Amino acid sequence: MKSTFLFGFIFLIHSIIISQNPVKWSVDYTTQLITFIAEIEKDWHLYAVKVPYPNEGPLPTLFEFKESENFKKKGKTSQEKPNIKYDKSFGIDVAYYEEKTKFYQKIKPLSDSFKIQGVIKYMTCNENKCLALDFEFDIAVNRQD
């Protein structure tokens, strides 16, 4: 009985944490360019890829791509210009976004039909808490259309 209660309690807590995601991601692919769009809930921040102090403060947004013989990444993931401001909670300048932003990754297709898969690892914070989250993406590309 105790183990059933404990399992139920842990599952409930995990569900509450997982269900709270103040950043909604969408992904768009056009010829040789992937656009990652982040819509951020009011009063929340999403941190940039390039941050002033990468080894201190909030975790930067990180884009990881599953290796493939069907395409090559061209350069690093780029970002729109972030807000940069001193954050008293972290004690440093942070680079962040509010409301909405986009990130871009150029690729070179090496075949006509393929998938681009990976994960976005990111941190989002408000005045009370921070969440470290992941978003898995899977893009089907068919250049014959």
Description:
It is a single chain. The chain has about 140 residues and is mainly β. It has a single domain (about 25-140), classed as Immunoglobulin-like, CATH 2.60.40. The protein is about 10% helix and about 55% strand. The protein has one helix at about 1-20; strands at about 25-30, 35-40, 45, 60-65, 70-80, 85, 90-95, 100-110, 115-125, 130-140. The strands form two sheets. Strands 3, 4, 6, 7, 9 and 10 form a six-stranded antiparallel β-sheet that branches. The protein has a four-stranded antiparallel β-sheet with strand order 1-2-8-5, with no helix packed on it. The longest helix has 18 residues, at about 1-20. The radius of gyration is 18 Å and the shape is elongated.
Write the layout of secondary structure elements.
Elements lengths: L1 H18 L3 E8 L2 E8 L4 E3 L14 E4 L5 E9 L3 E5 L4 E6 L2 E10 L3 E13 L4 E13 L3
Antiparallel strand pairs: 1-2, 2-8, 3-7, 3-9, 4-9, 5-8, 6-7, 9-10
Largest sheet: 6 strands, antiparallel
Say which CATH homologous superfamily is assigned.
Thiol:disulfide interchange protein DsbD, N-terminal domain
- Rg from C-alpha positions? 18 Å
* Total count of helical runs of at least 4 residues: 1
Give the averaged pLDDT, no decimals: 88
Separation, N- and C-terminal Cα atoms: 57 Å
Name the shape in a single word.
elongated
Tell me the count of domains.
Answer: 1
Helix content: 10-25%
Q: SSE order, as H and E? A: HEEEEEEEEEE
The CATH architecture name reads: Sandwich
**CATH topology, which one?**
Immunoglobulin-like
Percent strand:
over 45%
Computed structural class: mainly beta
Number of strands: 10
Report the CATH C-level class: Mainly Beta
The unreliable regions are: 1-18
